[in-house]
Each structure stands twice: as structure tokens, then as C-alpha cells.
From TrEMBL:
<feature type="compositionally biased region" description="Pro residues">
    <location>
        <begin position="272"/>
        <end position="282"/>
    </location>
</feature>
<feature type="region of interest" description="Disordered">
    <location>
        <begin position="260"/>
        <end position="282"/>
    </location>
</feature>
<keyword id="KW-0067">ATP-binding</keyword>
<dbReference type="Pfam" id="PF06723">
    <property type="entry name" value="MreB_Mbl"/>
</dbReference>
<dbReference type="InterPro" id="IPR056546">
    <property type="entry name" value="MreB_MamK-like"/>
</dbReference>
<dbReference type="InterPro" id="IPR043129">
    <property type="entry name" value="ATPase_NBD"/>
</dbReference>
<keyword id="KW-0963">Cytoplasm</keyword>
<keyword id="KW-0547">Nucleotide-binding</keyword>
<protein>
    <submittedName>
        <fullName>Rod shape-determining protein</fullName>
    </submittedName>
</protein>
Length: 282
């Protein structure tokens, strides 16, 4: 994860946090800004948003995030201001957790932080979406874990080892493409190819161990029984769908947020601007 603190305006940021909702100096916000939908969770209120990712509703709709990439930072800021500006408690500066695609790395995190600045955050934490999904599933992160996230416009396959990203692959295909003939087979072939490539390039046994254990499946694609059935047959390995898989990332980000608020000293161990745990090279 990465922490970017805002300048302090007084002594309130240094206080030891009280449990939500008793902490009056700050609030917490978790964000999952996907290409198709944006979801938000506010501490003490739970999930408050699950809406299309558009800058302007109606005929003039503009899509600031495409295929997992923030292509319009000002547009994303306007969207967040419109959706959340009036929902956050007044006179507070939220601690914000944002889920991120694994392979966009620093570019996505930088643009996400710039977009979130409109909410005047006290600090911004980023967490890879695959790790957030694992947190939602209460997965045992002491063992290697494969996460397959089939989203609306993007599919990621991520290998977590000790909770950190060890390897990752992605393809610009998702559930919104399923209306086109043959796309279902393309997604299955892409996921199978990505995992096969990870197995071949891994000089250790962790990828094979994770696959034998069973991959964790999330995203809207996990709601498609046909995809699960065909993917299980193609991989010759079990798949475990996360409950309510389309909201797994935001619920994991909320867990991460609650943990960060409860243990503020842990955030200080991550240097400002430091990188998220990225894929290892084998």
C-alpha cells in the first residue's frame, strides 16, 4: 500500500484515533473506481454508492475511466465531487482507501490521488484490488493465493504470496464484452493462457501450489455460472467464487480502511510516495 499524507493544519491529525463513529476529527472513505461502476463505502454508514462511472449523467455522459485506466483526471474529480461532496461530514478530512489495478502501478495511483484531492483527504492509501478481494474472502494469506478478477472491462489474474503481489497478468476483456459472439471463449482462453504463463515462468512452486489450492474468483464474471464451469474445466483446478463477487473489492477496501484507522502507527511505516508491493520478477 502507499500513504500520501496531507500537510497538517494543527495537532488533530496526530491524535490517537477513537473507534468510528466516535472519532469526530476525521472520517473514513473506501473507493473502488471501476471502468463501468464506482462504489463507495463510508465508515459508520456502509455502502452508499454503486453507480455508473460517468462524469455527466444523461446524453452527455463522459467516461473518465476506461479499461482500468484513468484517462480523464479532472472528469474523475468532478464525478467524485458530484457523488460524494455532499455526503461526507462537514469540517472533516477523510482518510481515503482506493483500490487499484495491479499492473497500472504508479501511473494509476498518481492519477487516483489527484482525482481524490477534490474531497480534501487527510491521507490517501492505495490497495491492490486483488488483495482487497482476498481480505473480503478472509483468505489465508500465509499461503500462496491466485485471484481471478473478471470485471466489466478488465480481467486480472494475480498471485499473492504472503499477502503481497508476486506475479500478475491482465487482459482488456470483461463482462461488458460478452454481448459479442465468442467473447466468453476469449475470456476463458485469456485467463487460462495467463495462468499457464505464470506457471511456466515461475521458478518456484508457489503458482502451482496456489492453483492446486483453488483460485479465488471475483468480479461480475463470477456471477456467470457458464464462465465458472468452463473455466474450471479449462484449468483442471477448483475455483472459489467470493460471496457477492461484484462488490468484493470495495468490501475488502472497507476492511483495510477500518484496520488502518484502528492502527494509525502502522501507516507511518510506509514512506510517502513509496510503491505498492508489485509483481516480483522470477
Amino acid at each position: 500500500m502507499t500513504l500520501v499524507p496531507r500537510p497538517r493544519t494543527g495537532g488533530s491529525d496526530g491524535h490517537r484515533h477513537r473507534p468510528w463513529p466516535l472519532c469526530r476529527q476525521c472520517c473514513g472513505l473506501a473507493l473502488d473506481m471501476g471502468s463501468a461502476r464506482t462504489r463507495a463505502w463510508i465508515a459508520g454508514r456502509g455502502m452508499i454508492l454503486d453507480v455508473p462511472t460517468i462524469t455527466f449523467p444523461g446524453a452527455g455522459a463522459v467516461y473518465p475511466i476506461q479499461r482500468g485506466t484513468i484517462v480523464d483526471v479532472p472528469g474523475a474529480s468532478r464525478m467524485l465531487e458530484r457523488l460524494l461532496g455532499h455526503r461526507l461530514p462537514r469540517l472533516t478530512r477523510p482518510l481515503v482507501v482506493v483500490t487499484t489495478p495491479v499492473l497500472d502501478g504508479p501511473a494509476y495511483r498518481e492519477r487516483a490521488r489527484a482525482a481524490v484531492e477534490v474531497l480534501r483527504p487527510r491521507a490517501v492509501l492505495t490497495v491492490p484490488a486483488a488483495r482487497a478481494i482476498a481480505l473480503t474472502a478472509n483468505a489465508d494469506l500465509s499461503r500462496p493465493l491466485l485471484v481471478v478478477d473478471i470485471g466489466a472491462h478488465l480481467t486480472e489474474v494475480v498471485l499473492l504470496v504472503d499477502g503481497a503481489v508476486f506475479d500478475a497478468r491482465r487482459t482488456a476483456l470483461g463482462t461488458t464484452d460478452l454481448s459479442m459472439p465468442g467473447t466468453s471463449a476469449e475470456i476463458i482462453e485469456a485467463v487460462t493462457t495467463m495462468i499457464t504463463s505464470m506457471l511456466r515462468q515461475d521458478r518456484t512452486s508457489v503458482t502451482a501450489d496456489a492453483l492446486c489450492r483453488g483460485a479465488l474468483l471475483a468480479g461480475g464474471g463470477a456471477l456467470r455460472p457458464d464462465l465458472i464451469y468452463r473455466l474450471t474445466g479449462s484449468l483442471h483446478a477448483p475455483l472459489r467464487a467470493v460471496p457477492a463477487p461484484h462488490t468484493a473489492a470495495i468490501r475488502g477496501a472497507a476492511k483495510f480502511l477500518q484496520s488502518a484507522h484502528a492502527h494509525p502507527s502502522a501507516r507511518a511505516t510506509h514512506p510517502p510516495g513509496g510503491p505498492d508491493p508489485g509483481p516480483h520478477t522470477h
